[in-house]
Amino acid sequence: MAAVQVKYRPVGVLAVLILLSTLVVISLKSNRKTREWKNDLQPTRGALRTVPDCPGYCACLRYKDPGCTEKINLVFIRTDRTGSAALASMFHRFGHERKLEFVLPRGGEDDLCLGWPGPVQLKHYRPRHTHHFNLLVERTVYDKRALHGVFPHGASYVTVLREPWAQFKSAFHHYRVGTVVGIQGDDPIAEFLQRAQLYDDVFTSPAAGSQRPEVPDGVSVTRNPMAQDLGLSERSWYNVTAIKQHIKTLEEDFLLVMITEHLQESLVLLKRLMCWRLQDILYWPHQYTDYPLRLDNNSDSQHKHREWSLADHMLYEHFNKTLQHKISKQGEDFHMEVRNILNMP
């Protein structure tokens, strides 16, 4: 069988070469634009730069203070009914992404916290696997000496506080306080605050233990719970001088005290103080519930609650004022970051 000879016409070859060259140029341009787009989404250590057609979100992703080094050692002191569970999940994500080491409880049936309602001790947590721990986000009571034993190389301490009247109503509902102590009627909060000491003794007694499985005997969920978690001893709960001294100590020890009612601003401040990325402070609120007690704003009850939970009110008022002062010193780029968090889909 005779071989078939294929003759290439010069015009056809030239057309093929032009087509291939065009495809190569298009591919190179596409790859370059892809790289530019990816780079625009990477945080940098330089000053804030706006990106054409994306002046907000991308600019926030790019922002970091010049010369800022990411901090990875953190102790988060959780407080009850303040949104701390959502923040703990956020800190867990931060640590897992970087393969950091957490201080973890030993995990027995009655050992799911790090010593709470007391400070952490060696018997409460698992041995470390690396050179030192990086993060503590499980529940414990703040005690500087105890925590120094876990973080001898230093860590940044943060916590969160919620407006005490709102926090009280949330705890009263969540722990079914009215039901546990047998209050009848349409206004269980007002009735509770009329005889707060009596009802609190009933709630914290061993006899009521089966009705409040989350709370150990003797632990009040309605009287200064945030001050308890932040290490203020019960004998100082109504000593104004002792409370002010404890506030001064916390101010020296803590990098930031966040406020639930200003959580976005608090998180942007945390991001800047820790030199984190915007992605690191994104969170999904959970365990949100609505209930009639949320709308209870009886002024007489609020006044009685302040007397009942004085330390919590003093803590909140001081650190809320401190946070507002810190916010007032920020520039427009700070407020732009806050707006972008609020507008996240």
UniProtKB/TrEMBL annotation:
It is found in: Golgi apparatus membrane. The lineage of its organism: Eukaryota, Metazoa, Chordata, Cephalochordata, Leptocardii. GO terms for molecular function: galactosylceramide sulfotransferase activity. Belongs to the galactose-3-O-sulfotransferase family. The gene is LOC109478713. GO terms for biological process: glycolipid biosynthetic process. This is Galactosylceramide sulfotransferase-like isoform X2. Its main location: Golgi. One of its GO terms (cellular component) is Golgi membrane. Keywords: Glycoprotein, Golgi apparatus, Membrane, Signal-anchor, Transferase, Transmembrane, Transmembrane helix. The chain crosses the membrane at residues 12-28. It is a single-pass type II membrane protein.
